[in-house]
């Protein structure tokens, strides 16, 4: 696999395929959020929580499905997920008439399972965590003749995620902002590599900082060590960030392209979530404020900059939201 | 004042004035929400919580400001509000360079006050409730030569609210739905009268049901009594619904146009809010789910119908959200 898994033309092609089905999400600026971050930073928030499935993953799923030939669409696809990637694939499958099978770990968020089933997907709940569920998904590829849509290790998925950065650049310019920096949370790395691909082609001066949850920091640790790392566990309430492996399609590009890679604790993610609720009045899940939590930590280094963060999704469950609101996290 | 304060042409003109500044908000259908409502009802949710100020009131404020002659824009405007109307007027004022003064009652939601100040408005906090603040606002009209933008008693405000119903009709049709019914919460009545104006011109078969909070039911009580009623208090956690008077611009039209008018308790509003969070993953304030709470109550009567409700806003404060999540309301 070459360092760079996709090109700007892949992102442009994905953009053209998904645009008939998805309108751009807002890029917003909140004076009160700026005041809370301080250091004269201007924060631009990309509201992927406004997507039909409440998550940016709808771009990835739709980009992957629309790239398939008719024969593969007819046989169907399989994905492994804790929720948002599966929702994106299931939404695209319902739209395009593609049969969708989704593998989730046991004990997966029941609201997310219900959401995928509501879109007509077959949901198989098996395995102790995401990586075990992913293993099962890849068995089904052979057994059932399905096409695999991995949530990160898939070039069309990364191209789909890259469309977000294209929109951010266009919208920031239209609103009169000069973007300096993006701070992006990493689960598998599709957003960060998608953004890096777009930025080095269109705005090479914009720097990208990456953030992982401290309890699920395999990619962060591998990035600093200079070689892929696998961990036994992924412990964070931000389930969209709970990976424990590095991925071949994204690792080398992250190594080459990122300005810096930091971690944030669950307490810092929860604090960012409360800040997002209070200053933007949008419902966000833990993973969605990984970037904002990272920005709070990086703020002294980013003084005076215009920084984009992505509210990647809003699919938080009742119990987790209650725990965050009650400061139990 | 004639029975009908505005015409469909007023709504069309408002639509043309606000469209360059506001993109349509999504109209969404959630299978899980349908399942929770039952009775084979299809629920369409209009996401006004996605507006830049997180509330439909931005339509009203912008419709009113864009209708003003240059001279009045230069002198400035004054509004009374508990928050969302003021945010809409302040946002429009910032956009168009119109000085904005906002009167709020003492102890008003501090996040909403901060939001209006962040948009450059002068916020005056005085008076025990909304109606007292409104009295002060009308003093300032004369003292300072400002134009009053009342949150309901203003034809351009009602026309602005009517643009929402126009969008709902267009979007429902484009999505293949045949709309039967709308269930609309009433604070001052601008949404309901705006919708009635649009529907009787374009889709007279669609019935409108109105809902008020049981603790702030002056318009409901007046509607059933056949004459305006004023109450001493307005007790509901849904602050956007906390009015205690009937308004001349909306009362007669509500009397003539509504199919039925019911009330819901604060407990029922809180239950609807939890349902909205769980099934749609959007942050909503109490007033925003007045319609949904009413739909839950009306469901047996609306079996088999396609029903639109409006999530009018997302500006709930931390303490109220926590109380709702913890089932203290």
List the helices and strands and how they pair.
Two copies of one chain form a homodimer.
Chain A: H1 8-18, E1 27-29, H2 31-37, E2 42-47, H3 57-66, H4 70-75, E3 77-80, H5 84-96, E4 100-104, H6 110-118, E5 122-125, H7 130-144, E6 147-148, H8 155-174, E7 181-185, H9 190-202, E8 207-213, H10 218-225, H11 248-257, E9 260-264, H12 266-280, H13 290-298, E10 306-311, H14 318-325
Parallel strand pairs in A: 2-10, 3-4, 3-6, 4-5, 7-8, 7-10, 8-9
Antiparallel strand pairs in A: 1-2
Description:
The structure is a homodimer of 329-residue chains. Chain A has 329 residues and is of the alpha/beta class. Chain A has 2 domains: 8-54 and 155-325, Rossmann fold, CATH 3.40.50.1100; 57-148, Rossmann fold, CATH 3.40.50. Helices cover 47% and strands 14% of the residues of chain A. Chain A contains 14 helices and 10 strands. Chain A has helices spanning 8-18, 31-37, 57-66, 70-75, 84-96, 110-118, 130-144, 155-174, 190-202, 218-225, 248-257, 266-280, 290-298, 318-325, and strands at 27-29, 42-47, 77-80, 100-104, 122-125, 147-148, 181-185, 207-213, 260-264, 306-311. In chain A, the strands form 2 sheets. The first copy, chain A, has a 6-stranded mixed sheet with strand order 1-2-10-7-8-9, sandwiched between helices. In chain A, β4, α6 (110-118) and β5 form a beta-alpha-beta unit. The radius of gyration of chain A is 18 Å and the shape is globular. In chain A, 57% of the residues are buried. The model of chain A has no long low-confidence stretch (mean pLDDT 95). Chain A binds chain B through residues 23, 26, 28, 30-32, 35, 47, 49-50, 52, 54, 111, 114-115, 118-119, 274, 277-278, 280-283, 314-318, 321-322, 325-326, and chain B through 23, 26, 28, 30-32, 35, 47, 49-50, 52, 54, 111, 114-115, 118-119, 274, 277-278, 280-283, 314-318, 321-322, 325-326.
